[in-house]
């Protein structure tokens, strides 16, 4: 009888180990298929949740430059957290413990009461605890992977060893994704410089030559009293050519000096808002809600350009006294809201003279997002831009 139980126990252990090895292999294969950070983190969360038979989790990463923490990814967050993005920002017990060096590898995976859920009752899906799995790369702190549960049994030595292996796999994937991101940004910078040179060498020089030719023709005509119509046409052409040349120079400058280089998106937007505040005439404010994680270059630049165009529209046409910009980030989307108390307009007329809004809408669609405009004559304008960050896992 005892031998039978022992055989059954060994069979169960073998089946459990085979399952764990299968999941580890699945994690390794999935992480090796991508260098996209969102996919890396989403895959890691889903696989660790499967491994532990759980439903919810999230990943905190430390910014490489500032060392500040931000929410890198989340899986099935309860309503209490999704509806209150500020609860998933700032410090918490597990991050403080990790920063202090008390999560020092797999042997110290901590199971703790989640300080972000501790004081909540409604909308938590019963979640109270999470396991904090520290992520390290070559001795450097990368972040923490948390998987949440309504209760938790004590983790045994085999569990800790398994989670330590998972942490190593995820950490390597994070480092690889970051290296790829750096090379991509470097390539984008080189491409901007190349485009700047091409524009300068072709369009700008061509417009300069056109201007010189038209000026010469105008000078020759100035010698006589004839051809007044030709002279008028040439002078109009001169105005257009000079304007085109100035626009080309402005475009070249934009390409050579990307607005976000050396700054975070939040810092760049705050500076942009300050530029549009006019002492004694208008006030402008900027609010950032939720941890703003590093985003793909195309999304950061797109959001900045859309905000820039919206604020320019307000300055030119709205006559507003108060302007506000609000940037709200959740794991799956980012929302940019620009509002003013200016003259407003009829949204049905967008496209008929409102070319700025048309351009903003096109930028939003290119990012897979959407634009919503609320306005009426005399009642100000509210532009809401929503851009998805990743697919729900």
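^ structure tokens above, recovered residues below v
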């Amino acid at each position: 009888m005892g031998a039978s139980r022992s055989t059954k126990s060994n069979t169960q252990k073998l089946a459990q180990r085979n399952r764990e090895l299968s999941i580890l292999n699945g994690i390794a294969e999935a992480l090796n298929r991508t260098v996209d950070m969102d996919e890396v983190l989403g895959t890691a969360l889903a696989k660790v949740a499967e491994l532990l038979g759980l439903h919810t989790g999230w990943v905190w990463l430390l910014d490489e430059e500032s060392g500040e923490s931000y929410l890198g990814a989340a899986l099935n967050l309860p309503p209490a957290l999704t509806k209150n993005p500020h609860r998933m920002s700032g410090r918490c017990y597990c991050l403080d413990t990790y920063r202090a060096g008390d999560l020092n590898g797999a042997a110290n995976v901590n199971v703790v009461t989640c300080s972000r859920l501790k004081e909540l009752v409604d909308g938590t899906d019963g979640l109270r605890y999470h396991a904090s799995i520290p992520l390290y790369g070559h001795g450097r702190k990368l972040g923490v992977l948390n998987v949440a549960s309504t209760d938790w049994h004590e983790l045994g030595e085999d569990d800790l060893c398994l989670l330590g292996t998972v942490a190593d796999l995820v950490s390597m994937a994070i480092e690889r994704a970051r290296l790829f991101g750096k090379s991509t940004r470097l390539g984008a910078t080189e491409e901007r410089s190349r485009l700047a040179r091409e524009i300068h060498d072709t369009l700008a020089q061509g417009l300069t030559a056109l201007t010189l030719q038209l000026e010469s023709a105008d000078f020759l005509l100035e010698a006589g009293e004839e051809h007044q119509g030709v002279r008028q046409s040439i002078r109009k052409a001169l105005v257009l050519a000079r304007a085109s040349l100035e626009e080309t120079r402005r475009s070249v400058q934009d390409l050579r000096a990307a607005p976000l280089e050396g700054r975070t998106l939040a810092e760049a937007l705050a500076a942009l808002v300050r530029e549009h505040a006019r002492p004694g005439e208008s006030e402008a404010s900027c609010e950032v809600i939720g941890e703003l994680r590093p985003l793909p270059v195309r999304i950061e630049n797109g959001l900045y350009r859309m905000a820039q165009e919206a604020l320019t529209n307000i300055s030119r046409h709205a006559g507003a006294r108060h302007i506000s910009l609000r940037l709200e980030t959740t794991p799956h989307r980012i929302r940019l809201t620009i509002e003013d108390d200016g003259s407003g307009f009829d949204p049905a007329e967008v496209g008929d003279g409102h070319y700025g809004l048309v351009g903003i809408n096109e930028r939003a669609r290119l990012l897979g997002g959407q634009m919503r405009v609320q306005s009426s004559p005399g009642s100000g304008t509210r532009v809401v831009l929503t851009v998805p960050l990743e697919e729900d896992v």
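The mean pLDDT is 78.
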